[in-house]
Specification:
132 residues, 4-stranded mixed beta sheet, 7 strands, CBS-domain
Length: 132
């Protein structure tokens, strides 16, 4: 089975120059724990996750949280060079990358643009329902 058959295609993104506060609001509203970070042309540059935000918050120290939220751009705390697969990759290949990198989702990219996301839960659901 190919990734294109399981991936979700309604992927929210965040621009690299958005504030950390804007990214947090987007993640919270969408009930997701990460967002792909893109440039003005939609090219994927990185990923911002709850872990990135918490790490930056811890490093900001006392009194630095509000500054972090309001004045820090996403590109300053994102994880660069995200793992990605193509829609033609097999689900097994995507699962192996997630396992080795210890992540729960991987973005699906075509021509450097995000076209979907597949998570470990998507794979588990496919196995449990007999699709995989």
């Amino acid at each position: 089975m190919h990734v294109a058959e399981l991936m979700k295609t309604n992927v929210l993104t965040v621009k690299k120059d958005a504030s950390v506060a804007d990214a947090i609001v987007t993640m919270t509203d969408a009930h997701v724990s990460s967002l792909p970070v893109v440039d003005a042309h939609g090219k994927i540059l990185g990923v911002i996750s709850n872990t990135d935000v918490l790490t930056a918050e811890a490093e900001a120290g006392d009194g630095g949280l509000q500054t972090l939220l309001d004045t820090t751009e996403v590109q300053a705390i994102m994880t660069p060079r995200p793992l990605a697969v193509t829609p033609e990759a097999t689900v097994s290949e995507a699962a192996q990358q997630m396992l080795y990198a210890d992540v729960h989702r991987i973005y699906v990219v075509s021509d450097d643009k995000v076209v979907g996301v597949i998570s470990s839960m998507d794979i588990v659901r496919a196995v449990a329902t007999g699709r995989l």
